[in-house]
Amino acid sequence: MIRTVSSRQSLEQFEKQARKPLHDLRRLNAVSVERYFSFEALAGDFQPGLVDSQYVISPQYGFNSWQELKQRISAGGDSS
C-alpha cells in the first residue's frame, strides 16, 4: 500500500520517521532487514545508516528515492 505525502508534512517529519527503521536495522530486526533487502541486495558487511532507512521509507510513499520524496515535499503538493 502506497502512503500519501501531504503538503502539511515537513521533511523533518520524514527524517524522524526514517530513524525508527534505522534503529530496527541496526538491531537486525528480522522484519526491517527483510524489508530492506527486498529493495537492495547487498554483498559484504551490513552496517546500516540513515540513508539505508530513507531508502526503505521512500517507496512506501511511491517514490524511487529519498531525493524524489524531498523534492515533492519542497514543492508542497499532495501526492498519492
Number of helices: 4
Broad shape: elongated
Q: What is the gyration radius calculated from CA atoms? A: 13 Å
Tell me how many strands there are.
0
**Most strands sheet:** none
Order of helices and strands: HHHH
Number of domains: 1
* Estimated helix fraction: 55-70%
Compute the average pLDDT: 75
What structural class is derived from the secondary structure elements? mainly alpha
Beta-strand residue percentage:
under 5%
Written description of the protein model:
There is one protein chain. The chain is mainly alpha-helical and 80 residues long. The chain has one domain (11-75). Helix content is 59%, strand content 0%. The protein contains four helices and no strands. The chain has helices at residues 11-26, 30-39, 50-60, 66-75. Helix 1 crosses helix 3 (50-60). The longest helix has 16 residues, at 11-26. The protein starts with 10 loop residues before the first helix and ends in a 5-residue tail after the last helix. The mean pLDDT is 75.
Task: Summarize the entry for a quick read.
The protein has 80 residues and is mostly helical.
Features:
80 residues; mainly alpha; 59% helix
What does the secondary structure layout of this molecule look like, with pairings?
Elements lengths: L10 H16 L3 H10 L10 H11 L5 H10 L5
